[in-house]
Amino acid sequence: MSCYCGSGELFEVCCQLRHLVHERADTAESLMRARYSAYVLGMTEFLNRTWLDGDGVESAADLKVVNWCGLDIVSTRAGMKSDSEGWVEFKAYFIEHDRLFCLHENSHFVQNQGHWFYKEGELYRHEPKELALNAECPCGSGKKYKRCCRRQL
Ligand SMILES: [Zn+2]
Ligand SMILES: [Zn+2]
Predict the structure, then answer these.
(1) What would the pLDDT profile of 48-92 be if each residue is shown by its tens digit?
(2) What's the gap in Å between 116 CA and the centre of ligand 1?
(3) Where are the alpha helices (DSSP H) in the chain?
């Protein structure tokens, strides 16, 4: 199956590989994508391990409640193998009560001995949008919303 992060790659060679081997997330963006997929899958351990000074994320049960439906990388700055820090601005979408929410953040990542870590992020506020049942699903599947992401709830 194609990866949750929307890279177009197979999950096994994209975020799953980075969940299994942290070093394979060799850019800030690849760690960002792996963390998004970890949120989708409720992988608390990976999220905590890749969060510098993180004081813990929500429990796996809380994470799973969120109906994530897509990730857009808006821009990246530095964050390559040779950099010690990097920034990834992204929009992650989730659905709640037939409304589409956008988590828009500019995340700051740091690299430490070949491992990238999430440090902190600056959030931008967006109002949620109402989702019509017959409209095209925001996940990009091409299906109607009512036959796609709505059914996972
Ligand atoms: Zn991925
Ligand atoms: Zn969908």
Answers:
(1) 999 997 776 667 667 777 899 999 999 999 999 999 999 999 999
(2) 15
(3) 15-20, 28-41, 44-49, 60-65
CB atoms within 10 A of CB 51: 16
Mean pLDDT calculated for residue range 111-124 = 95
Ligand nearest 15 Cα, by number? 1
What CATH class is the domain 11-95+102-130?
Answer: alpha beta
Give 42-52 pLDDT, tens digit per residue. 999 999 999 99
What distance in angstroms lies between residue 112's CA and the mean position of ligand 2's atoms? 37
Which pLDDT score, from 0 to 100, does residue 66 have?
85
Residue with tokens 């608390």: 44
135 Cα: distance to centroid of ligand 1 (angstroms): 26
pLDDT at 153 over 60: no
86 alpha carbon to ligand 1 midpoint, in Å? 18
153 CA → ligand 2 middle, Å: 12
Tell me the CA distances in angstroms from 83 to 95, 112, 114, one per residue in order. Answer: 35, 10, 10
| Ligand 2 mean position, distance from CA 139 (Å) | 4
Domain residues of the chain, as ranges? 11-95+102-130
